[in-house]
Design brief:
- This protein has one domain: 2-Layer Sandwich (Transcription Regulator spoIIAA), CATH 3.30.750.
- It is α/β, with parallel strands linked by helices.
- It contains three helices and five strands, in the order ββαβαβαβ.
- Helix 3 links the parallel strand 4 and strand 5.
- Strands 1-2-3-4-5 form a five-stranded mixed beta sheet, with helices on one face.
Amino acid sequence: MQEDVIFRGGDRTLTAEICCEIDHHTARRMRELIDRELFLKKPEILTLDFSSVSFMDSSGMGLVLGRCSLAEQIGCSVRLVGLSDRLMKLVRLCGVEKVKNLTVIK
């Protein structure tokens, strides 16, 4: 069975590669997995890698915004990478790029 999130990291970074579609069914599980690693590792930078995501609804935006809020509490910044054109459009429409501790890298 494929994992929903694969984690990689160094001493100051944590990358969460999301490996499934993001909807209200999968977002909760991913949120729990990412939060657990975020609290365990306490990185300076959390990178959310969307390279393997083919679909994301508004639950995905909630996932991103919630991780930004949690990351800010522990002094961590968030980067979004690997966004397809479709996902980038959703991010821009939702105004997620304006979150202060978030960087979107195309």
